[in-house]
Amino acid sequence: MRHSKLKDFPKDFLWSASTSAYQVEGAWNEDGKGMSVQDAKTSLPEGTSDFKVASDHYHHFEEDIAFLGEMGLKAYRFSISWTRIIPDGDGKINTKGVQFYHKLIDACLSYNIEPIVTMYHFDLPFELEKKGGWNNRTTIDAFLKFSKILFEQYGSKVKYFLTINEQNMMILHGAAIGTSKGSGINIWKELYQQNHNMLVAQAKAMELCHKLCPNSKIGPAPNIASIYPASSKPEDYLAAQNFTAIRNWLYLDMAVFGRYNSTAWSYLEEIDAVPKIEEGDMEILRNAKPDFIAFNYYNTATVKANNDAKKVQDSSGDQQLAVFEAGVFEGVQNPNLEKTEFGWEIDPVGFRITLREVYDRYNLPIIVTENGLGAFDKLEDGTVHDDYRIEYYKKHLHEIKEAITDGVKVFGYSPWSAIDLVSTHQGVTKRYGFIYVNRDEFDLKDLKRYKKDSFYWYKKVIEENGNNL
Ligand code: BG6
């Protein structure tokens, strides 16, 4: 639909930016913090840094939040490291960890920045992983215990909680991200059991939030992307339906309606990965209701039919690139789209399509909690001329305006990332931030911060409430 006039962003639109604890904080073993699965990785992709120092945000947070204040952010999305709060995942509370996030939240509030807290972003406590991780239902209780601490400690200051970041990517691409990759002959049986257990944990956490923090709102934060059929062949359309049911709706249907969609369920039956559902689980899932939907969007995917009988999929492929499931769908390149330097397709119009699809299906307010461009930024004369990133953001923000005019309720935009950090599996070299952090893959240099061109651009966008993109 071509609109003759686009609607404005809402007056109280949450102009935000995002990070996650293990990718930005560093201080991996300081002040009582326990090890997470990310700290415990024994092998990293060749030539990439570990997460021990990252952007050293733990020691630079006051300076970093001051930068975000200067940029004019209305919100800042960060995650809380579970092992800073409970070092072994379900034992004693670490007071210094609890205090750190009080200081971080207070710093945000002092600049009128609304903290948006992700409760769990890929960093399961390693001690829990050793006991089976999400295969073990006691991890559900551990997550609840951790959630309760977060709600009790921060609930009076935090209006927006996000439960689990990209649970769908943890299941589909766990080996690449460094979360669980499953084991045994049928890894999918194990991974979809973990998935079910995580969904139950999420539902219980949402209920608890509503009980303990009447003034806060909570929602899930998967990675959602519309899926195109490669052609008008009906078989390709079916493949696109399959992939969207498995990749997108499985997670959001469970969070919002508490039901497995029929296509995803028949897929689980087909690959012998139906999870064991305990008595009471479905009731818990049906009763829990998110207040909004948060989702991360990088790009759409395009698939064609695949009728191969063998199932040879593992979870080590890149989250936006490895799209294949024998007999179900097969990813193809979309010739209509440009790509980032890291091969991810760029699809702003697909962003509008995704926003419309999510809103039509769930009818809940939406906040976009990640979107951004990973690039080989170069520091020159104390800045980075990242006009390519500005172009990317302009186009995506334009499509949000189109979607808002279409009637989609979008209340915030939190691009990835607020400051440079360590990417999930491609190191420091793949940069996303509005603020450059002076370090290389293995040379920590001085970790000094520099404002990129996109910093000044986003500041102006926020000042003008997105009126002159
Ligand atoms: C999302 C994650 O999947 O994409 C982030 O929530 C991640 O943690 C971001 O950093 C970009 O991916 P990558 O692999 O480039 O770091």
TrEMBL record:
Domain of life of the native organism: Bacteria
Alphabetical list of InterPro entries matching this protein: GH, GH_1_N_CS, Glyco_hydro_1, Glyco_hydro_1_AS
Catalytic residues as annotated in Swiss-Prot or TrEMBL: 370 (nucleophile)
The keyword Oxidoreductase appears for this protein: no
UniProt key word Disulfide bond: no
Any one of the GO BP annotations: carbohydrate catabolic process
One Pfam family recorded for the sequence: Glyco_hydro_1
Single GO term (MF): beta-glucosidase activity
Keywords: Glycosidase, Hydrolase, Plasmid
Annotated GO CC locations: cytosol
Family: Belongs to the glycosyl hydrolase 1 family.
Protein name per Swiss-Prot or TrEMBL: Beta_glucosidase
Lineage: Bacteria, Bacillati, Bacillota, Clostridia, Eubacteriales
Name of the gene: bgla
